[in-house]
Amino acid sequence: MSHSQQSTLKTMNTDQKIYKTGIYRTGDDVANFQFRILIHKIHSLIDVPNMGGQIQPFMDSAADRSMEMKTVKWQEKMFSRFEVDYYILKENCKTERQKKYYHRLKKESQRSSILFTYVEGDDYYPEDLIRFNKTHLISQLAESKVQSMYLMADLGKEVLLFSIHWYTDHGLLQVYPDFNNLNVNPYYQEIRGSSLQMYHYALEKCNPTEQLFEPVLPPPTKKLPPLVYGRETLFDVPKMPRQQNAIILLELQSATGFSYDTGGIHIRYKVQPSEGVQFANEHDSEVTGSTQSSSKTGNRWHFSDCHELQFTVLNCNTSSPKIDVYFEAVSIDSSNRERYFGHSHMAISFMQRKGESTLNFVQLNNADAADGIEAFLVGNRRKIYLASFYGK
Fold first, then answer.
1. 48-58 pLDDT, tens per residue?
2. Where in the chain are the domains?
3. What is the model's pTM?
């Protein structure tokens, strides 16, 4: 005898709609990476009073150009207007890098541009780290080599649009904010001068192959403060196992095909993580639960029962981290008699963003008259070790 129970099981990750960090993994050479940066200017939205001359109006020398687009390779240097004026003077160039920029500017004509870049070796620090000396910084990934690149815009002042970091030892690319599309989900920047001006901007991948960068497990949505140490307090950081947090939202929606109409249908479940995965509460080895109520419409029982399950993936190199969920369907009548309707099993992978599944329940009692009388009089509760039954 078999019964079917329809349930919806969803794995979801909370995503910020804007300004989330993108984390990507690749085994390819990062030098092959190139991207497209776009900025669109919306002119003079509203007049803003100039208070005593303290606010300087932004005069764009290319005022008739509302859109600018650049295709940039990894660590490609694009000069700002200030840098062009500075490095073109030989007496300003003392270091080897400055001399390199001087000779490049002498050979190449530079078109006026809003967009420019700071690359590895340039004297630039993000605003939140400007108070720290560069020699006192280490990467958030202990003992890891990191290259950085900053995509900027000259909007009357230097504006940081995107920060990109490449962790060489781990093959990870970090993009903040994440890639987006100018026509779908642009980022915004307001500039207040003699009038309020709005800029839309975006960063798009334009690699020759689409699979150059594949996302790893979803990154945490909360931006953590940078890890900063002074050399006087620097110590050897022990190697810790790589781990990541994950949340699964499990919803049991409805069931159909059960033979008894009396009492309410309940779905009980047991969650067991696979090797390398543990509950956020490390004292739990498994989690059990049950639907609390149900209502019947036609031949279908409705639950709309939701559960939030939090896990820690201890080894991010695990090929397929997952959890096993075992289900059992019972009916409880007014005399508290339990009637057993069957059980089922489902494995949920952490690599699955969304999923909806229909499960068939298997009933392990006979369909003879004796079992029918037993179920009617006292119920027919069966003790079944589901993990062993499913070979786990």
1. 455 444 444 44
2. 22-42+66-78+113-205, 243-390
3. 0.47
